[in-house]
């Protein structure tokens, strides 16, 4: 044991001498040392393995993950009309503009049997819609818009956060534009008293900590 400690101590002394020399030569700065010392062990391990890492966007944090599978009788072209017929009476507020016609440009068409890992990300500070889309794309999200929001309500509404807007983005080009020229983003809201709202926010506005992102991610294909 003493031999091992002796070897490690000798290596450490050599590293300290080398580090001081690099500081003197300007090859390393105190800021470099502080940055490395403040890394999590996992990040250091990844760097050592040559994997690298991406800094987490602290404006968003993962709250929960749950599974969703598109039902076998699902018809994308008429799903919002069918959803309203089945569920509208259960909503305290339901925006009349959430229709198959207004959201017919959906980027991704949901098909029966498609399986998703649905993730809820809390928004921790005010962010623009463009920032939300950038973050979702980094998660390899499948943008599902109004159709995805309705599916989340019907299959897993108890998984959605209470007292928050669960926002379901799509590409700007797929969003409905109202008569005032604003692009509208669908969101579900589950009040603490049990009331539900299916509403439309404005893409042009920022989103705060009263909102969460609804993120659909594909499951990896199962091996044969």
Protein architecture, described:
- The structure is a single chain.
- This protein is an alpha+beta fold.
- The radius of gyration is 24 Å and the shape is elongated.
- About 25% of the residues are buried.
- It starts with a helix and ends in a 6-residue tail after the last strand.
- The mean pLDDT is about 90.
- Helix 4 runs parallel beside helix 6.
- Strands 1, 2, 3, 4, 5, 6, 7 and 8 form an eight-stranded mixed β-sheet that branches.
- Strand 6 and strand 7 form a beta hairpin.
- The protein has two domains: about 45 residues, no CATH class; about 160 residues, no CATH class.
Per DSSP, the total helix count is 6
Q: How much helix, percentage-wise, in residues?
A: 25-40%
> How far is the N terminus from the C terminus?
50 Å
Structural class: alpha+beta
Shape: elongated
Q: How many beta-strand elements?
A: 8
Most strands sheet: 8 strands, mixed
- Low-pLDDT stretches are none
Number of domains as seen in the coordinates: 2
Strand content: 15-25%
Mean pLDDT: 89
* Secondary-structure element series: HHHEHEEHHEEEEE
Radius of gyration from CA coordinates? 24 Å
């Amino acid at each position: 044991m003493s031999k091992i400690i002796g070897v490690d101590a000798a290596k450490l002394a050599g590293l300290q001498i080398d580090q001081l020399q690099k500081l003197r030569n300007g090859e390393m700065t105190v800021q470099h040392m502080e940055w490395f010392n403040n890394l999590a062990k996992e990040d250091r391990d990844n760097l050592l393995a040559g994997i690298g890492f991406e800094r987490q966007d602290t404006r968003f944090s993962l709250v929960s993950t749950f599974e969703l599978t598109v039902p076998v009788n699902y018809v994308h072209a008429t799903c919002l009309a069918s959803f309203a017929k089945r569920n509208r009476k259960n909503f305290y507020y339901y925006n009349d503009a959430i229709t198959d016609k207004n959201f017919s440009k959906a980027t991704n068409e949901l098909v029966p049997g498609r399986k998703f890992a649905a993730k809820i990300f809390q928004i921790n500070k005010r962010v623009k819609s463009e920032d939300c889309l950038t973050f979702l794309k980094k998660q390899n999200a499948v943008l599902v818009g109004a159709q995805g929001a309705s599916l989340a309500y019907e299959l897993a509404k108890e998984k959605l956060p209470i007292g928050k807007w669960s926002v379901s983005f799509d590409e700007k080009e797929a969003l409905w534009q109202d008569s005032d020229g604003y692009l509208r983003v669908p969101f579900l809201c589950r009040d603490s008293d049990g009331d539900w709202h299916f509403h439309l926010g404005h893409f042009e506005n920022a989103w705060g900590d009263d909102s969460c992102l609804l993120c659909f991610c594909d499951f990896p294909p199962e091996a044969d």
